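The instructor's notes for this session suggest beginning with a concrete chain rather than abstract definitions. Hand out the sequence below and ask the class to guess, before any prediction is shown, which regions might be ordered.
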Amino acid sequence: MKEKTATSTPTEGRDQGMMIFSYLLAGIGLYGGLGWLGDHFWQTSFLLPIGMILGMAISIYLVIKRYGSAT
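After discussion, reveal the predicted structure:
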């Protein structure tokens, strides 16, 4: 019987990469969408870019928080 090793398989790395990519897309989409709604209802034009930048920053923070530790 083979023992499990501490190394990750290529599919695990791909799965983590896809999770990180989905975090980034979801952050931009969610906060960009909230910015778009704010622009629509308040007749402004600056909330969409602010929402997208804020979403990207929050997503990057969450990715670093979740995947940044080398344990």
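Then share the key points. DSSP finds two helices and no strands in the chain. The mean pLDDT is 89.
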